Fold:
Amino acid sequence: MLIVLGAVLMLALHVVPTAWSYAAVAAAVAFEVAEKSILIRSTRKIPTATGPETMVGRPATVLARCNPIGRVRCGRESWKARCTDPRGADVGETVVIDSIEGTTLLVSHRPVERTTERLSGSANAKPTR
Structure:
């Protein structure tokens, strides 16, 4: 990182003889370039999970009774929800997001499926269930 480069520059300019200072600075610059290229290459392989499709399958907590319309909390956000179960959902129950219509979440009481947080493969990959 830049701290390493700065330390090598300070060492090269004040402690090491002139002939060795050029070699030390060149080695530090080469190390920095190699490190950055490895980090950039490795982080490009991780796709960014964004969009409404990332919410499908996640659990949500009921804030206002859903019979069939109510409110749920998913993460830190409160959403308008429509419960697909005929019996509805009471406050405090955990429901699962089945799909999204506009800004309304369609939820049900089916068991929560565990999904992987990190998507593997290409940017078009879907979470494994």
About this structure: Confidence is low (pLDDT under 50) at residues 116-127. The two ends are 38 Å apart (CA to CA). The domain at 52-108 is CATH 2.40.50.140 (OB fold (Dihydrolipoamide Acetyltransferase, E2P)). The chain has two domains: 2-44, 52-108.
